[in-house]
Design a protein that fits this description.
With 110 residues, this protein is mainly alpha-helical. Helix content is 80%, strand content 0%.
Length: 110
């Protein structure tokens, strides 16, 4: 109940921000970040990862790749992706650990 209500309110806020500021505005990324945290609380890690991935793109465009907000969103995205892999495969492997580390270190963007 409360999580669904929170997600709807965040979505409404984000829709407004996109209309007023455009899709690459930091307020859009901030709202996506909050939506990702709601998904985390619900253990919906695939949706969490998707939101954090979008945050990374926006924060990198606005603040640069090395900015704290970009790095934080990238790290949270990597952990959400790892949780998704654990859910789908039951454990992480050495290869998965390397993939997550590459994601955190933003090698995936090159």
């Amino acid at each position: 109940g409360k999580y669904l209500e929170a997600t709807k309110m965040y979505q409404k806020s984000m829709d407004f921000d996109i209309k007023v500021h455009g899709p690459d505005h930091p307020s859009v990324a901030d709202t996506l970040y909050n939506i990702a945290l709601v998904h985390r609380k619900q253990e919906r890690h695939d949706l969490e990862a998707e939101c954090f991935d979008k945050c990374v793109v926006i924060y990198a465009k606005v603040h640069g790749d090395a900015h704290n907000e970009t790095a934080d969103a990238r790290k949270k995205a990597a952990h959400a992706h790892a949780e998704t892999l654990v859910i789908h495969h039951g454990h992480t492997s050495h290869g998965t650990t390397l993939e997550v580390n590459a994601f955190i270190n933003h090698d995936w963007m090159s």
